[in-house]
Design brief:
Layout: H1 12-20, E1 24-29, H2 66-81, E2 85-90, H3 100-109, E3 116-123, H4 130-137, E4 144-152, H5 156-161, H6 168-180, E5 184-191, H7 197-210, E6 214-219, E7 222-223, H8 227-233, H9 242-255, E8 261-264, E9 274-276, H10 283-297
Parallel strand pairs: 1-2, 2-3, 3-4, 4-5, 5-6, 6-8
Antiparallel strand pairs: 7-9
């Protein structure tokens, strides 16, 4: 149904394979960016769930240049998976949080290989402006270009509680400006943020209304040396069970347009830093159970979507 995969949702990896003819692998990059929600510009300490790595899940060191990280990523993935094409993915912290000239130098250095076919930039909606978006739009004719915005929830009360540092209106302004320039947008959301099931579904319906190009779903988790870890130790939060998470993911997918690509459904942080919930460390088990839940429901992404 979706790119001939047998999946009941629009898997981003399958979408890339259909678009480019071969499987496309992401090379995660750390360019030494910071974040205005950690350096004191907005507040200190950042979001309650953010760890020292700024959501960076790989073992690269930013002591390596971007060119070296790209070359190392291509070499490693080519040897392990016989990979042929790649996307450069700026993942750690807020990857538009520098001056435009510096951003141009950094992005160009990540595209300096003929095997790179795409560019993906993870950032916050309060870290873009017209000049930065114009720069990024300049890559889209030659590279499959995405911006990944951390939204987490459409509910301002939730964003305040997690110390996000911006509201939904800020995201909406950034989203509209990005789409005006023809840049693909992937929106990150988190389940388990002290929200009811209905509130989570409100986020799904709003993203469906916006017809976002992609969604990345995370489960709230406590990692070592985060504010959330302390909240968990003080027994001030209960995390979703795996069963509740799986059902919520399937409910969420049912509201999204079939065209929206799904970039992630499970897995958060490095296992060695995970405090809770521990079931999150079994990513493939969770993904398989999501597949089974959709099958058992006779359901699929978009079944409840109304244009």
């Amino acid at each position: 149904m979706f790119a001939g995969t047998g999946k009941l949702y629009n898997q981003f990896s399958a979408h890339l394979k259909q678009k480019f003819g071969v499987k496309v692998y992401k090379i995660t990059l750390d360019a030494g960016f910071s974040c205005p929600n950690r350096d004191g510009t907005i507040s200190t300490g950042g979001c309650i769930f953010c760890d020292e790595g700024g959501s960076f899940s790989q073992a690269h060191s930013n002591l390596l240049s971007i060119e070296e990280q790209v070359e190392a990523g291509i070499k490693n993935l080519s040897e392990r998976f016989k990979a042929e094409k790649f996307m450069s993915y700026f993942q750690a912290y807020s990857n538009t949080y520098k001056q435009v000239k510096e951003l141009e130098r950094i992005y160009n250095s990540a595209l300096n290989n003929e095997k790179i076919v795409g560019l993906s930039i993870g950032t916050r909606p309060d870290c873009v402006d017209d000049e930065k978006l114009d720069l990024i739009a300049g890559y889209k004719d030659d590279y499959y270009t995405w911006i990944e915005y951390g939204l987490q929830s459409i509910h301002d009360k939730t964003l305040r509680r997690i110390n996000r540092g911006h509201d939904f209106d800020c995201f909406k302004r950034a989203y509209d400006k990005t789409k005006e320039r023809g840049i693909n947008v992937c929106v990150h959301v988190i389940f388990g943020l002290w929200e009811t099931h209905d509130e989570i579904m409100e986020t799904a319906r709003k993203l469906a209304e916006l017809k976002v190009d992609g969604v990345k779903i995370h489960m709230l988790c406590a990692l070592e040396n985060t504010k959330l870890a302390k909240i968990y130790e003080e027994k001030a939060i209960d995390f979703m069970s795996e069963e509740e998470y799986i059902k919520t993911v399937c409910d969420f997918l049912e509201y999204l347009p079939p065209e929206t690509t799904i970039h992630r459904l499970a897995g958060n942080g490095l296992k060695k830093n995970l405090i809770a919930p521990l079931w999150l460390g079994k990513k493939m088990d969770c993904l398989n159970r999501i597949d089974r839940e959709l099958l058992n429901r006779k359901s699929y992404q978009g079944i409840k979507y109304k244009d």
